[in-house]
Amino acid sequence: MVLDNAGSVEQVRPLLPGSPACLVVVTSRDALTGLVARDGARRLDLDLLPLAEAVSLLRALIGARVDADPEAAAALAEQCSRLPLALRVAAEYAVARPDASLHRLVDGLADQRRRLDLLDAGGDPRTAVRAVFSWSHRRLDASTARAFRLLSLHPGSDFDCYAAAALIDATVDGAAGVLDELARAHLLQPAAPGGYAPGRYGMHDLLRAFGADLAAAQDSEQERRAALTRLLDYYLHGAAAAVDTLFPGERGERPRIPEAATPAPSLTGPAVARAWLDEQRPSLAAAATRAADSDWPGHAVLLAATLHRYLKAGDHQSEAITIHSSALRAASRAGDRLAEGKALNNLGLVDLRRGRYQEAADYQRLALACSGRSVTGPGKAHALGNLALVSFQEGDYQQTVDYHQQALALYRQAGDRTGEGRNLTNLGLVEERQGRYAQAADYHEGALALFRETGNRAAQAYPLDNLGNVRLRQGHYQQATDYYGPQVLS
């Protein structure tokens, strides 16, 4: 006996046969927990089709056009979220248009909202993707339905309980209960187990579009904006707390971020802080993009300024490009030339690490232009120092020194001791590269004195290591050992 699309346990129980010889298969978008607990049912949760199987289904339905354009077929499978129903509807759409390429179909389904409209199976309420989702949504109580709509506004692919709590304005425990209920209704899927938060959940693209449509129709613009503002505040506060824990000596170089109004995890230990940042990195990049392209340019700029050090230290180039590009767009829209220059500086540093020296130099020159006529602006000093790094990699040591000396004068004029120390360190590296060890040591000693004066223990490691290298090259092995040792930090 097959009981298809059951809405509740009570729909199923009266139909269960009394004989153990009859097998019953029940399908439902609900977990039907009571059947497992009381009636001995065995649950089989069906995940999205693996990509290869989704493409195989398209091949069986569409034919040779799939093999002729495997890249477009894979993209079409992903656009359908690898859901069998959506794949079948999309395949029928393709079959009905034999002269259209799969690439053209993929382009037509690029917009998530329009995709739901195209996958309506000609208005058949039993096979339209939107209608099938609505079966689960209609069974939710009002508060859980509202939570689903607000969660669909999340810009990333998945989220934890704290992000959910921010969106729906609830406690962490309250959010966890809602997430579990939505997962039982198959309106969320558990993502990879969270390393820090109690767990992560996500929506595939079609569900997210469905929820966003509902939110636009049923929740006011003010409610939607408030939810996203709480979420962006949470991510910004969490990022600031985590980066301050990892790089406490550089707090003065970053903007001060106020406490978020919603619950936030405690990120007081370096290991916990790094784990949180690593886990949230895709969501932080998505949040920066959403902030820049919507009505939160300040959040995009602050996220980039806050995360710069972490992204650089971990060599997270992909997310760095996304986040700093978002900050650049946001600053440009807001007419904030200082923030625009910082974003250009940071994008140039990413290209420098990728070995794209011409592109890196172009970014720094644009950053210099953002400084305008200012002769003391920190943006100008940063850009000059970064141009020096490009010249150093290209082997033009005289140009490197010229840039560093210009930057050094600006840092001294502005009273920026950290910037001054970094430029002295880099000047020492130029001298060391050319075999002028006495001059190199002088620069490194000057940088070390500045970092000790400001109490920046993390920054002291660089001139100490460099001094050890210089003494090693000079054959002063005991002095080199002393510089390498931990006891010289102060």
Task: Describe this structure as you would to a colleague.
This protein folds into 4 domains: 2-39, no CATH class; 51-131; 144-335, no CATH class; 416-490, Serine Threonine Protein Phosphatase 5, Tetratricopeptide repeat. 68% of the residues lie in helices and 2% in strands. It has helices spanning 9-12, 33-39, 51-62, 64-68, 70-79, 84-95, 102-108, 112-118, 129-138, 142-151, 161-168, 172-184, 205-218, 221-246, 270-293, 297-313, 317-334, 337-353, 357-370, 378-394, 397-414, 417-433, 437-454, 457-474, 477-484, and strands at residues 2-3, 25-26, 158-160, 189-190, 200-202. It has a 3-stranded antiparallel sheet with strand order 3-5-4. Strands 1-2 form a two-stranded parallel sheet. α21 runs antiparallel to α22. The relative contact order is 0.05.
